[in-house]
Amino acid sequence: MPIPGTRYAPKKFKGDYTRVRDFVLHYERICHANNVTADDEKCSSILQYCSTYVREIIEGMKHFITPSWNSLKDKILQYFDAAKAEAKFKEHHLKQLVDASHKKKMGSLDDFKSYMRKYVRVGGWLLAKSKITQDVFNRFFWKGLPKTLRHRVENRLLQRDPTLDLSQPFVFDDVVKAVEHVLRRDRFDDEDFDSDDSDSDSDSENSSSSSDDSSDSDKEEEPPRYIRKTTKQKKEKKRTSETEKER
Questions:
Q1: Interval 203-232: pLDDT, tens
Q2: Distance of CA 132 to CAs 88, 164, 188, Å?
Q3: Residue 112 near residue 179, CB atoms below 8 Å
Q4: Distance between first and last Cα of the chain
Q5: pLDDT digits over 28-40, tens only?
Q6: What segments bear the compositional bias annotation Acidic residues (predicted)?
């Protein structure tokens, strides 16, 4: 059996319910690869790939004390709640995703691909587990698109197939292809042209410069102001004049 921590050994199991099923399956594969078939050896060897906490729980199980691998495996899955991982999504999770998505902007292919990944993560899982039907899967995916994008995509679908049955939800794959066409990255008009903005900025600068020059010119042409002399200044001037006469 692989030494714990090496390349082919299972990652140490610490009791996470989301990992317990994968951990057990991985352990069974390495047992098969190493020709470990005896129940007592299977039951004892699993301990080396578990944390101390998990190991102590397994050691207290009846089917570890009296080795029976299949029974012990079932108890490990039960005790560490593998069933909880099987119920990670419900239909209302999909509805929440759809309600949030159709209100958001989806103006690029990147935005759409992000939505598609989130949708398949939840909706695809529900479909695989028979929690929803294919029609529900298709309908919810369509409803998650913003209204403006739905209109453009519908036109594209009808363009490709004028006899399309509008009483049935559009097929997921067909919608994806239509969106990829509508939001394709190599559209001729999918570029930003800054020349107009530059011209506008230039005009604005010229206008501002002209305004400043005009303002400076106005200041230069402004006639000098005569400052009214104060009483103190008049007295000083008179005193100076009298002194000069005495001389």
A1: 544 545 554 554 454 444 454 454 555 555
A2: 14, 24, 40
A3: yes
A4: 126
A5: 999 999 999 999 9
A6: 190-204
3-state secondary structure of 187: coil
Give this prediction's pTM: 0.59
pLDDT tens digit sequence for 169-198: 999 999 999 999 999 877 665 555 444 444
Query: Whole-angstrom Cα distance, residue 110 to residue 112?
Result: 5
Contacts of 139 (CB under 8 A, 6+ apart): 169
DSSP 126: H
- Please count the CA atoms within 13 angstroms of the CA of 44 that sit on its side-chain side: 9
Measured distance CA(141)–CA(149) in Å, rounded? 13
Distance, CA of 4 to CA of 193 (rounded, Å): 59
- Residue pair 69/38 in contact (Cβ under 8 Å)? The answer is no
Closest C-alpha to 80, from 37, 11, 22: 22
Q: How far apart are CA 79 and CA 82, in angstroms?
A: 8
